[in-house]
Design goal:
Rossmann fold, 9-stranded mixed sheet, binds S-adenosylmethionine, globular, two-stranded antiparallel sheet, alpha/beta, 23% helix, 9 helices, 363 residues
Amino acid sequence: MAHGSWEEATRISTDLGDAVLGDSLDYMEDLAPESVDLIVTSPPFGLVRKKDYGNEDAEDYVDWFDAFGKQFSRILKPRGSLVIDIGGAWIKGAPTRSLYHFRLLIMLCDRHGFNLAQEFYWWNPSKLPTPAEWVNIRRIRVKDAVNSVYWLSPTPWPKATNRRVLQPYSKSMLSLLRTGYRAKKRPSGHDISTKFSRDNGASIPPNLIAVAHTESNAYYQRYCKKHGIRPHPARFPAELPEYFIRMLTDEDDLVLDPFGGSCVTGEVCERLNRRWVCVEIVEEYLKGAKGRFERPPTRRIPRDPDRAENYYRVPRPDILWDGSPTEPLAADGGRKRPAPATKAPEKRASGGRGTGRLGLETD
Ligand SMILES: C[S@@+](CC[C@H](N)C(=O)[O-])C[C@H]1O[C@@H](n2cnc3c(N)ncnc32)[C@H](O)[C@@H]1O
């Protein structure tokens, strides 16, 4: 499967897959139609402020992506899936958001015939509050801590099962299962039948994936450091591709990551026994990725569902509001920059920065 120019320092080839140095558009053109089971990827985001790993300008993003969409729809099997993790972007100099990721989704469906199987949100509880100007200084926006993850498919029936991504029952569900549920109609009109009190062993997850980006990537980072390689600046946590690879593919299926970066997808496929190809255009990123394949795949140590650190806690939105009167809002919507604060720091409410008991960072 090797393609493009090769050096020993970047050659990654295992029994299950290859990392390819080159432009994934060229690579995909050589692939047979309907040959790939899953494309899971995190493309360069359409950040308005370009970063050093080749982000496209938000304005031109959809046009740039069009050629990729065409190839994705050609090479995917009819029961295959395309999963795209994409971050939002702010309009330069304004406290407003770019629509580029919505446009991308609509373009893929309208122009390339994809179906939106489901949209997911990856919540990164350790995301820093940016842009500081809107979030910390003017206090007119909140932290942007979710990425959209679009699950698309060439047909409305991609192969999939939620049975592989189950979660432990909540305490309230466990008590419901113990005490039983009286079948009745909810105020919403939903008919809650006795089927809801059947113990299936685990619960079906929502479309919110919570993973702090303080990833267990120590080996990769050590490898980069040892070899004087800059680690990839925009890696996704392994749990993200892993979730979709488990839900949407079987062993020996072929998984492609056309924006391979540090080959997290390849490393996950090694663990899960899927065939894989990661294509990456920047040689240095593949030099670092090599470290992921130097030793046999690490076996997953099952997490303990009884340990608090395996959960993130989300406060209810009104948790600190006691109903007392509040300062009026700035009539100009925060347009005038506040004078630098000289007064004593605000008293922190409990639950503020540094609580971090469960690895959460607030502001
Ligand atoms: C957001 S990063 C992906 C990071 C990756 N998921 C990881 O966890 O390491 C996007 C990557 O796409 C690469 N890229 C951009 N255009 C490409 C192209 N046409 N072909 C292959 N790779 C490309 C960039 O160099 C960058 O490393």
